[in-house]
Structures are given as structure tokens and as C-alpha cells.
Amino acid sequence: MQVGIDDLAIYVPKLYIDYKDFAQARGINPQKLEYGIGIKKMALVDTNQDSACMAANACLKLMQKNDLQPQNIGRMYVATESALDESKAMNSFVIGMLEEVYGEGSFEHAGGIECKFACVSGSYALYDNTNWIRAEENNNKAAVVIVSDIAKYDIGSAGEYTQGAGAVAMLITENPRLLAFDSKIASTIIKNEYDFYRPFGKETPLVNGNYSNLLYLIQVKKAFDSYKEKAIRTGLIRLRNGESITDHIDLFSVHLPYRKMGEKALAYLLRHEWRHLPRWQHIIKEIGMIEPVPKDPRGTIESILADKEFMESDEKFRRAFMQTSSYNEVFEQKMASSLEASSLIGNLYTASMYMGLRSLLEFEYKKGVELESKRIGFGSYGSGSSAMVFSGVIQPEYRGLVKNMNLEEEIGMRTKLSIEEYEEVHKNERNLNDCHLRGHKEFVLVKIGGSTADKAGFREYNYLN
Ligand code: HMG
Description:
Layout: E1 3-11, E2 15-18, H1 19-26, H2 30-37, E3 41-44, H3 51-65, E4 73-79, H4 90-102, E5 114-115, H5 121-134, E6 142-151, E7 164-174, E8 179-181, E9 187-190, E10 196-197, E11 206-207, H6 209-233, E12 251-254, H7 259-274, H8 279-287, H9 301-306, H10 308-321, H11 325-335, H12 340-345, H13 352-366, E13 375-382, E14 386-394, H14 398-402, H15 407-411, E15 415-416, H16 419-426, E16 442-448, E17 459-464
Parallel strand pairs: 2-15, 4-5, 4-6, 12-13
Antiparallel strand pairs: 1-7, 1-8, 2-3, 6-7, 8-14, 9-14, 10-11, 13-14, 16-17
Helix pairs in contact: 3-4, 6-7
3-hydroxy-3-methylglutaryl-coenzyme A is lined by residues 29, 31-32, 35-37, 81, 118-119, 158-159, 162, 195-196, 207, 209-210, 212-213, 216, 255, 257, 261, 315, 347, 349, 381-383.
């Protein structure tokens, strides 16, 4: 049985900050943001929005464009790290909003939970719901997985230029029109880590930036090793002499905390996969430098980061590798299209990789590439930390969906905030009635808390026509 993503819909909030204004305000060279990080616009939620209404807005779009009724949906999972309550799951808020449109009780028959594991939980949610359908527990109903997040970092921190917000809703069905997941190869890795975390009550995360970058690369590579072992053992991929498994993956979509991280993740993976192959000799010749090794190759991430000599020469080697024709060919053909959305929106935590998938499909199609039967390899990462690597194959009916994708049109008209206006929103100095935009054809937050203590934390939303 083929199960996978039948269609997807996105929601991006309508406020943004421009990288040039941001660079000027923080005294940063704008080229660092444009090329070093890969950001041009960071999406920002207005005071009358939260992660639940972004999720509901994405889900409503998905339902409307596919003429879905609540009775067609058996499960709704929301993956997020922007939770609104310690107990009440985000999907209950989302269902409350959707029932304003579809009628009270219209989702009563369905089920679902909120999932958390930093940015990777959406991938676990997809995997679990795919297997719910594979196990034929679904009673002919579809599952909806929504990933929705607000990436918010401290003002003045290095994370501040990796902020963003948005949601992606995915319809999971049997015989999907868009992408069927390969079975029995999804691979995970998990370890207790403190690369990025947000203790209770704190609005912004505590981040160990460089550590998080290296941990991401290592964890995704370990999950990829396990994927490779399964793909070969199950016969999904058959390697001939001198081939790498990356030769059999047509397109890549990885977690994108920022655009440049995708480029670095591909470089890291290719270096590991290619260094034992005959092609490596040509690459080393082109680079003109031997690949460096750390003083203690079996050391910890801390010891590797502390090995200054190695880190410097390894950075030099990586940059040179990313200039080679071999890397650039793979990058342009297999990854570049997935990164377009990231520069225009920023980090979406759980939704980043799926916005990347959306971007990949649209921009590859616009290039005129035939996508049918192409295999996409996914590298999902969540701090704390866990990685999941899996793959899927684009289905013949993809054209009917992808031909209508238009990121700019779907994001719609956006309003640029000045840095002063952005900081007011960031510091929660405006209340929800002081929003910059009222909203149109979308759910917005109208009230938090009631007049009595037993209504604390109640959230009221309205659909604005
Ligand atoms: P930073 O201090 O800006 O790093 O922190 P940097 O000084 O190394 O600069 C970044 C790049 O800009 C470098 O390029 C510089 O050379 C370049 P690279 O060497 O890497 O190729 N640069 C310039 N380029 C052009 N012109 C210039 C110029 N100047 C410098 N003039 C960092 C960057 C990402 C660490 C920081 O923004 C941060 O802490 N972000 C938050 C954490 C994060 O995103 N980590 C990513 C991995 S963990 C993850 O993905 C999980 C996460 O999404 C959370 C979750 O799972 O829920 C975060």
C-alpha cells in the first residue's frame, strides 16, 4: 500500500522584517545575513496571532482547496514547540477554530495529539500517521499533520537573525497524489543534549549556536547511515561499484534553521559519503588541499570545537569543497530549490523542512524538471536532540497540484515593520487589540483569559471574512 502526502497548504504571517534594516540596527554587515546566513525577510506574527491560529489557517486552506469535510479526516496531529498550554493540546484549539467554519461537533469523531521534539516532531507525526493508514486503522479516513511554529530569539543574540514564523498542513492518504513514503527505511537517532532548549516559562530559547550546528550535522549523518543500511538491506537502493547512495537520491529536503545550514548539511553529507570513493581523488585535486582530521577523531563535540587548528582548516576545506564543480552540480540539481522559501520567511522550527519541501516542488517544476518518480531524501533535525532520515517518491499526479503553487502569491501582500515596531512586538509591548493588521479571510486571536480566575488561559479566536 502506498501512503504519503496527498497535498499540502501553507500559512505565513503577513508582517516581516527586512534584513537590511535589521543589519543596520544591529551593526552587522548585511552581506553576512544575505550570504553567510541566507536571510532576506523574517516573517513575524502580529499581536492577534499565535501558533494555533497559524495552524488553523493552514489547515483551513488545505481543506478548502481539496473540498475536504471534517468527516473525511480521522486524525489531526499538530507538531509544535510553540505550545500554548502545558496540558491542552494545540489541536484542540485548532479544532475549535475549524468548527467555527464547519459547525460545532463536526470533528468529534476524529482524534489526535500535539507532538513535541523541537523541530523534528512533525516528522514523527507524519511517520505515525502514515503507519496508522498502512495498518488500515483509519476506516477510510485521511490524517492531517500540521506543523506550526514561531521562532523567537533574544534581541541582540546571534539567533535573532534566524527568526521566522509559519505553518504547513499536510494531508496524509492512501495512494497520495504528491509523494509516497518509502516503507521500512525511516531511521532515527536520539540523545540527551542541550544544544537549544527553552525551559518552562521562558519565551526565548537558550542556545549553544556553534555546538548546535555541529550536532545537527552529526545527528543527521548518523540517521542517514542507518537509512543507508536499511535502504540497501531492503533492496530499495542497489549500489554499483564506485557509487554513493546520494547518487540514488534525486532531491534533498533538510531541516532549515536558516538557508546556509541546508548548504552546509549537504556538504557534510557528501564529504562523508564520497571520501572513500574514486571520485574523491579528483575532488581533492580540484580543492588542492588534504582533508583535515581532528587531533582526536573520536573526541566529543566540545573537544572538536576546541581543536582550533582543526576547526580552522576544516572550515577552509569545507568552503573550498562547496566551490567544487562536483558539489555545485549536486547542490543545484538536488537542493537549491528547497532553500528559496527559507530566505523569504526564516526559521519555522517544525515547519521549516516542510516549507522547504513546498519550495522544492514549486521551484523544480518552474525550472521545467520532470519530477515524476523522483526520490526525495529528508533530513529532519530537532534540538535536544533527535534526527530522522526518510524518503519518498513523487507520484504521477503531482503536476495537477504543483503547477498551481506560487509562493509569493500564497504568502500574499506583506507589511514591513520598522525595527522599532518589530521590537515593540517582540517585547510584548502591544496587546492583541493593537495589532498592525486586522486579518482577512483568516482566524485571529481576539481574547486571552476570561473575567474570572477559572477562565485564565482561555483563548478566543474568530474567523474574519
Ligand atoms: P554567527 O555568530 O552569526 O556565526 O551564528 P558566524 O559568525 O560563523 O557567521 C555565520 C556565517 O556568516 C559564516 O559563514 C561567516 O563566514 C559568514 P560560514 O563560515 O558558516 O560559511 N559571514 C559573512 N558572509 C558574507 N559576508 C560577510 C560575512 N560575515 C560573516 N560580511 C548561528 C550563527 C547559526 C550559530 C546563530 O545564528 C544561532 O545561534 N542561531 C540559532 C541556533 C541555530 O539556528 N542552530 C542551527 C542548528 S540547530 C537547529 O537547526 C535546531 C533549531 O532549529 C531548533 C529546533 O530544533 O527546534 C535551531
